[in-house]
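Hello Y.,

Per our agreement to keep a running log of every chain we model this quarter, I'm adding this entry. I've kept the format consistent with earlier entries: sequence first, then predicted structure.
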Amino acid sequence: MAATREQAEQDILDKASKDPAFRQKLIDDPRATLEAELGIALPAGVEVSVVQETASKHYLVLPRDEVAAGTELSEEALASVAGAGGSGNSWNDPTCIDGNCG
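Predicted structure for the entry above:
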């Protein structure tokens, strides 16, 4: 499994681009699909949205407000931005940096 959130996201995008059924599951139920694909349970407070661009509609994803405002990040937020994650990914565990858990 991917070592960072960025790699996990890329792996998901790659699979969705090659597998139309997986892509539709991701659109219909992103949380359950990600949990099944990553083999983890996302924290209760995490909401997942999937949008698909069209020829006439494009999306720009902005960072969290605290990042955009240039404010100092908490240790948890910093770990998230740095690609921290449990079970070898950054979706779940702020104590694990790039798959190096300790």
